[in-house]
Amino acid sequence: MMPSMPLFLLLLSLMGAQAINDLRTAAAMAAGLCKTRPTDLVFIIDSSRSVRPSEFEQVKVFLAKVIEGLDVGPNATRVGVVNYASRVKNEVSLKTHRSKPALVKAVTKIEPLSTGTMTGLAIQFAQNVAFSEIEGARTKSPDISRVAIIVTDGRPQDNVRDVAQRAREAGIEIFAIGVGRVDMNTLKQMASDPLDDHVDYVESYSVIEKLTKKFQEALCVSDLCATGDHDCEQVCISTPGSYKCACKDGFTLRDDGRTCSACSNAATDVVFVIDGSKSVRPENFELVKKWINQIIDKLDVSDAKTHVGLVQYSSSVREEFPLGRYNNKKDLKDAVKKMAYMERGTMTGQALNFMVENSFGRSRPGVAKVGIVFTDGRSQDYIGDAAKKAKDNGYKMYAVGVGNAVENELKEIASEPTADHYFYTADFKTMNQIAKKLQINFCDEEKPCECDSLVKFQKKVESALQALTKKYILFD
């Protein structure tokens, strides 16, 4: 039985980041979403006389299976094979085979040398020759890994400590696999840190294949775009071990590197008009503030672009801060968090009139003006005149209703087409979820965007609400 979600999350937090990454890697491999990062990989295989011909065949099968799990190609993983005993032979160069079938076929043709065990000599050869650009290695780069996997079953007849250290210092990551009566201290002298990840032991060559998955995973990097482990709003582009965000045609990437703006040159004045009446209740008012800040996160706030003002109303109207006072998201969000709950009546008409006469009365000339009105109940005064004046002045008005909000009042506040400019939900708890789904991009009315125009506010909301409704029906 699967653990409950809270318990599962607790287990992940206790396991730590590396364990979570391991789980992601395993899941990605299972789903076929795993790629090998660009790597120059060289196998260094012991074929000394202690390795019987049948055992050497098993080593080759192991190599072939690891190769099958790699993303082989000139711009992905290049594979070489160094065969050693008392002498060293470069069986497969990094430049020789650029496809899996050709590579596997070359591996099957390797014959054992059947002499001594000069492991140190083999490591030095790999560093100086196999990993050289002449043999196909790429120029050193942080985006390209250099990896050596050593397979040996004996004690080396030469020094490995110093030569392995020089190889590691040259940027080669070394994995050491020991078989049978191998000297474990020698493996540790060769391998990179942490040793637990880079030293492996098997009792015999007959079970070496069980390490196949380990090395496929070690060389695997999850495609974070495919697995969904990213926060790009529109387009995710995979990069080695990571990702970067981009936008669809007609949109530009914002400074946060993840969200997109439909109108990069548009200047907009946005005023939130927020119901602080007693029916909202303190705990829900905190949810409203979080909702406002989630929307602010999606706006292009700066001195030259989006300015934000905030008005709270109940039996009276209070301007929390005017347009242009804060020109960065941090200061804006801090000011929203500090807003105190008024907790009285619901004079929505008075609040709308304040927005028209005061908030937008001090706004920048020639920029788009947007009002976002939130209410949870019926207005105690007449809203018609102020709502009409706002729209007649060219303001784009959105109406957001929760709980006991009246649909006809929302429609009266909202701009045309009405269906695109108002929405309603019964539960305050869904507001933050809705804000995550919304992308409110505002274009200058005098200089319309040559994109897909304004994002359809209501359609986004309806989609989010349908998903949330299903969620609450299923899990309530």
From TrEMBL:
Residues 40-215, 269-438 form the VWFA domain. InterPro entries: ECM_Assembly_Org, EGF, EGF-like_Ca-bd_dom, Matrilin_CC_sf, Matrilin_CC_trimer, VWF_A, vWFA_dom_sf. Keywords: Disulfide bond, EGF-like domain, Glycoprotein, Repeat, Secreted, Signal. Residues 1-19 form the signal peptide. GO terms for cellular component: extracellular matrix; extracellular region. It is found in: Secreted. It holds the Pfam family Matrilin_ccoil. Gene3D superfamilies: 1.20.5.30, Laminin, von Willebrand factor, type A domain. It comes from the Eukaryota. One of its GO terms (molecular function) is calcium ion binding. This is Matrilin-1. It comes from Oryzias latipes.
